[in-house]
Design goal:
Blueprint lengths: L11 H16 L5 H12 L3 H28 L1 H28 L4 H33 L4 H27 L1 E5 L2 E5 L6 H23 L18 H5 L4 H22 L2 H8 L9 H23 L6 H20 L2 H4 L4 H33 L4 H8 L1 H19 L4 H25 L14
Antiparallel strand pairs: 1-2
């Protein structure tokens, strides 16, 4: 409850929920890269496959920066949220610069490496610190519904693509061919691709900086002073058998890997089913719908977990749903036959939408599951280390699916083969959830306010 004397300064919505949404709705637009990776490649003289590595690197460095900078987030959320603001907006502006440079020097390796550094490394650091910064604060303010609170913020990360995609498409404008090369002329004139990055960098800097200024832990919570003894992360993790944490890390990694493997092929699968031609707005509409499922899973699964005695039940539910739907598509050859069978096509669509929901739900439930197992005092650092799973999955999920499809006789057979692999991985994740991760005991020590 807000303190009458403190007013907005002690209001949990203003000091936690709103700044979390401002931060996550900004950094979540990293998922929009697929919308213009081909256009950027054409603009700078490289194939789409080369530019796609910028996204993979961004996710990798998100996980790595979260793992290595978790202690900074733990000690000072204002420092970490400022780092996030500067790195994310600066990296986006730098990406725009190297796209501009690449347009003047086609095929320049410097332009491609510059995009990797700016979008991959610099923005990746902003993603990791920005993702972590508001999570603990939300759980402290919303001690009675911490799943709902973290789900709300993380849903902002998932919904960012749905919100930003139509805006970015408007900014890119109309494709035109100049000297045999496709360029986009948008509201800002020719070269709209790199100009869009400059404009977005300014917009997201303002949004994230406001979030940085508003973000604040409740006065009733006090971090240990610099000279005060605090248990090491390893000693906290050893509160339970290490197999418990390893199980959480691995099932989180496998859920992300399976999610990315299917989501990365989403557009191609939709096209093979022929549904993009049947729906107004084509893939753009379907992409928005899948993004809504992604965000809905983040909010819905985490809110449901607040009512469960053991939050690990949510992961079991996610894996069971994924296994059942994946097995159904595999057994019916749904992707291969879906173009000629409406029921099978609908089954494939249901699988992709639920994979999106389970993918998002995994993200929103990890911090609260960890807090139930290991308490709140070191949750940012532990959550950060756990997000390294996201970083490694970012390098393996997309690439695994692309490799399988490239080695298959046809694209449709390749997508079907991807499902065989993800089915096995989902089963392994379920077994980890059942036998490695012990029942949580709600050890989070959260103050009343």
């Amino acid at each position: 409850m807000a303190n009458a004397k403190g007013g907005w300064r002690t209001n949990k919505w203003i000091r936690a929920a709103i700044p979390a949404l401002l931060l996550h709705c900004s950094i979540g637009t990293v998922y929009c890269w697929s919308l213009f990776s081909r256009e950027i490649g054409e603009h700078i003289g490289f194939p789409k496959g080369a530019t796609e590595w910028a996204f993979s690197l961004a996710i990798f460095f998100l996980g790595m920066s979260a793992a290595f900078l978790g202690n900074i987030v733990e000690k000072d959320i204002h420092k970490s949220s400022l780092i996030a603001t500067i790195c994310f907006a600066g990296g986006m502006a730098g990406t725009g610069f190297f796209i501009w440079y690449g347009g003047l020097h086609k095929g320049s390796l410097l332009a491609l490496i510059g995009i990797y550094v700016c979008y991959g490394f610099i923005m990746g650091v902003g993603l990791g610190t920005g993702y972590l910064s508001p999570v603990k604060t939300l759980m402290l303010w919303f001690s009675d519904r911490k799943g709902l609170a973290t789900g709300l913020a993380v849903a902002g990360f998932g919904a960012a693509k749905a919100i930003a995609s139509p805006i970015m498409k408007w900014m890119l404008g109309t494709p035109v061919e100049v000297n045999g090369v496709t360029d986009y002329v948008g509201p800002f004139g020719g070269g709209a691709v790199y100009k869009m990055f400059f404009v977005l960098a300014a917009v997201y800097f303002v949004m994230m900086f406001v979030g940085h200024l508003l973000l604040k832990k409740p006065d009733s919570w006090h971090e240990p002073a610099s000279g005060e003894a605090k248990p090491s992360i390893m000693s906290v993790l050893k509160m339970k058998p290490m197999t418990n944490y390893i199980g959480i890390w691995l099932m989180f990694y496998l859920n992300i890997t399976c999610g990315l493997a299917l989501i990365s092929q989403e557009k191609a699968i939709f096209q093979s089913l022929g549904v993009t031609a049947l729906i107004a707005g084509g893939y753009g509409t379907l992409s928005t719908i899948s993004a809504v499922f992604n965000a809905g899973g983040r909010l819905g699964f985490s809110a449901a977990a607040d009512k469960m005695k053991d939050r690990n039940t949510v992961f079991k539910l996610i894996f069971v749903i994924s296994i059942v739907l994946t097995a159904a598509v595999v057994l019916t050859s749904g992707i291969i036959e879906g173009a000629t069978s409406i029921p099978l096509g609908i089954l494939v669509l249901a699988l992709i939408m639920m994979v999106n929901a389970g993918y998002g739900g995994g993200f929103s439930n990890v911090p609260t599951l960890l807090s139930d197992h290991y308490g709140m005092s070191s949750i940012s650092a532990i959550h950060g280390i756990t997000l390294s799973a996201w970083g490694f999955a970012g390098l393996t999920g997309n690439q695994l699916a692309s490799f399988i499809v490239s080695k298959s006789a046809t694209s449709e057979a390749g997508y079907q083969n991807v499902l065989y692999v993800t089915l096995v991985l989902y089963i392994v994740a379920l077994l980890l959830s059942l036998f490695f991760v012990k029942k949580s005991e709600n050890t989070g020590e959260v103050p009343e306010h």
